[in-house]
Amino acid sequence: MKKNILILCITLFLYGCNANKTPSQRMPDSTQITKSQDDLLKPQDLESKSQKHAHITLTTEEKMKFEIFIHALNIFQKDRFAFYKRMKQDISQKVKNLFKKYDEFRSWISDDQHIQEQKELSKAFNYAYNRILYNKLKRSDNDQTTMQYIEGAFYYYLFDQYKDNHHYDGRLYGSTNPGFPTNYVSLFFDHFISKIIKKYDTNEKIFQAIKNELEDKNSEIYAKTLNMLS
């Protein structure tokens, strides 16, 4: 009898001790286990956006084509400023706002956070690059780099930079005479700032529109510019 009472007392004591424990001291429930396992199985969820972009790199060719495209847009911008300076005209606020918008886009896409966009833009520029390169090799001095050939398409930039030591020759860019008005190369790059960047209000939309335009070999801009080079 005493033995049974002793066993009962011990049982009640142990039960009481367990009842006083907090939920976290008891056997973990299935939700807690699953959460811990998920954390262990999915370390990529903790990876930052910048770390993900660190795995994306440009090839030498991709980097070169991306830089040429951006350089051409930069030269167009400088050419316009040189034009206003040479003509002694004030730059309108509308023009200032447009180029400010371009500067913001250039900074956005040139950032290391947007390497993927740089790759895509470089690939999209491939057809235009080949048209320009083919024409350069066919029509101009082979010692000239592609960037120099593109720079030569912008008359006012040349005059402002080199004080007319480099002479503009429109025949290299589609004109039937050494002067104006036809210049398919400058018109091509003009389009992306004056039309596309002007039209869209976010960097993402500008990027997508430029990419789409570059990829469409049958687009109006190709038909009126680079496809006219011969």
UniProtKB/TrEMBL annotation:
Top-level taxon: Bacteria
Name by which UniProt lists this protein: Mlp lipoprotein family protein
